[in-house]
Design goal:
Blueprint lengths: L16 H11 L3 E2 L2 H6 L14 E4 L3 H14 L3 E4 L16 E4 L6 E5 L4 E5 L4 H8 L4 E2 L10 H6 L7 H4 L2 H4 E7 L5 E3 L13 H5 L8 E8 L1 E2 L3 E8 L3 H13 L4 E7 L1 H11 L8 E8 L1 H17 L3 E6 L2 H12 L1 H7 L5 E8 L5 H13 L7 E4 L4 E8 L4 H20 L15 H23 L12
Parallel strand pairs: 2-4, 3-4
Antiparallel strand pairs: 1-2, 5-6, 6-10, 7-11, 8-9, 8-10, 12-14, 12-15, 13-14, 13-17, 16-18, 17-18
Helix pairs in contact: 1-3, 9-11, 9-14, 10-13, 14-15
């Protein structure tokens, strides 16, 4: 049997005196080894253990990134791209040391075309910053993972979120990127045209690569006109299965829903306390519709009829913007709300995605699995595309908590894979799901990924220890 390809192994890196001198000479005050910055760049928002870099560089241009990688390549120093640090699988943890290259100073919106409905931004632009920039032009960028992540980080992890069911994920909406390769060379993946048959699809090779192949410095994105009417709706169900069956029917008949989110009864209870809402504490669907008044009214009526058929109660709609924003802010704050119920605990968040026809069974089995343990782990989900999150609060100092949650996570992923789903719908692989990726795609696919990684990054300096 052929031996699977391996990635060049690494050990913990200590910067040599010459590497420090070269980096300090080039970057001056942009280079720091101050403990506060090392600690900040040692972790993301996941439960994975932190690990400090040897230094942090604050890049301000593509040329900065290129020079950083050229110097680090010369000295065989790992480089870990860093944006907002909101990832959930240890993506930005420098487990082998090296340089954390912070892109948040690369925060310019470079170009917006209202005619072509696209824009070009630097990688450090934050999601909410882009929304604020586009809003006066009657435009918006739809990918909304909840956290105020950087656009470059969202591309690196293949982010999606609440609006994916209608508008698609980063894989759909990134038209092209500027990439700095591990040796410092700069590459543009494609031109601005909406389609191309020219060569390999390098854009999508780097989307979701989690900083293991290069550093994204600029992105061209599809954007959209702000809908004439935006209407939100809520509906409660007696159980999760009924809610998911209603979702499946809604999608199958082609209702043009822009968002369709689930919170189980525990998540609703947590959100009520945290965001001071008065929602009935039953499984809840949150829906949103975009379009003309006639289209939105028609789709709301059809959705209401479908929800009622599956036991939905108290279908309420609203076009009041402050109320709608408060409701969606509460949904985005669900993880914080859940953690607030166990203030001394730590979040352990995992996600899977399955074909929508298997979603109800996957969620129900997961709920039963959690009930058989002592853990508190509500479920929320982007159920319109089959993706849901298990949000547990654990005591890291209690080895039983971590052991039980790891077992639940493994059973959840095995359940999703048995249904032809994936171990992660949007969180990515990072360090937390590497074994599951192998289980999902098999040795041949892993070997191809290793070939790509070894060809582009033969020294294994780009975010080593992640994905494969």
């Amino acid at each position: 049997m052929e031996t699977p390809l391996k990635i060049r192994p690494r050990t913990r890196t200590q910067l040599t005196e010459q590497a420090i001198l070269d980096l300090q000479s080039r970057f001056g005050a942009q280079f720091t080894q101050a403990e506060a910055y090392l600690e900040q760049h040692s972790k993301d928002e996941s439960f994975h253990s932190p690990s400090e870099p040897d230094a942090v560089i604050f890049a301000e241009s593509t040329q900065d990134v290129s020079d950083c990688l050229r110097i680090c390549s010369l000295h065989n120093v790992p480089v870990i791209p860093f944006g907002a640090g909101t990832s959930l699988e240890g993506h930005v943890t420098p487990i082998y040391g090296g340089i954390s290259i912070d892109l948040t100073r690369m925060n310019k919106v470079l170009r917006v075309s209202t005619d072509d409905l696209d824009c070009t931004v630097q990688a450090g632009v934050f999601r909410k910053q882009l929304s604020k920039h586009l809003e006066p032009m009657g435009l918006f960028f739809p990918v909304d993972p909840g956290a105020d992540a950087t656009i470059g980080g969202m591309a690196a992890t293949g982010a999606s979120g609440t609006t994916t069911v209608r508008y698609g994920s980063m894989k759909t909406l990134v038209l092209g990127m500027t990439i700095v390769l591990p040796d410092g060379r700069v590459m543009e993946t494609t031109r601005r045209s909406r389609k191309s048959s020219a060569g390999y699809d390098l854009t999508h090779l780097f989307i979701g690569s989690e900083g293991t192949l290069g550093v994204i410095t600029e992105l061209t994105l599809r954007i959209f006109g702000t809908p004439e009417v935006i209407s939100a709706a809520t509906v409660q169900f007696p159980d999760v299965k009924s809610a998911i069956l209603a979702v499946i029917q809604t999608i199958q008949v082609g209702v043009g829903v822009a968002r369709i989110e689930l919170m189980d009864h525990e998540a609703v209870a947590a959100v009520n306390k945290y965001s001071m809402l008065g929602l009935p504490e039953n499984p809840l669907l949150l829906l949103e519709f975009h379009g003309s008044p006639e289209v939105v009214n028609s789709e709301l009526l059809l959705a209401s009829e479908i929800m009622t058929q599956f036991g939905g109660l108290n279908f309420q709609r609203s076009t009041d913007d402050p109320s709608r924003r408060k409701l969606w802010m509460a949904r985005h704050d669900a993880a914080l709300a859940i953690k607030a119920q166990r203030p001394n605990g730590e979040l352990f968040i995992t996600d899977v995605c399955v074909p929508i026809s298997d979603l109800a069974e996957c969620i129900v089995q997961t709920q039963e699995d959690v009930k058989n343990t002592h853990l508190y782990a509500p479920i929320i989900g982007h159920v319109g595309d089959g993706n849901f999150h298990l949000i547990a609060v654990i005591d890291r100092t209690n080895p039983i908590d971590l052991k039980v949650m790891n077992e639940i996570n493994r059973r959840l992923i095995s359940r999703a894979l048995s249904m032809q789903g994936t171990c992660t719908g949007e969180h990515g692989i990072g360090v937390g799901k590497m074994d599951f990726l192998r289980e999902e795609v098999g040795e041949v696919a892993i070997s191809v990924m290793c070939l790509i990684k070894n060809a582009i990054d033969p020294q294994n300096i780009m975010n080593p220890g992640k994905v494969i």
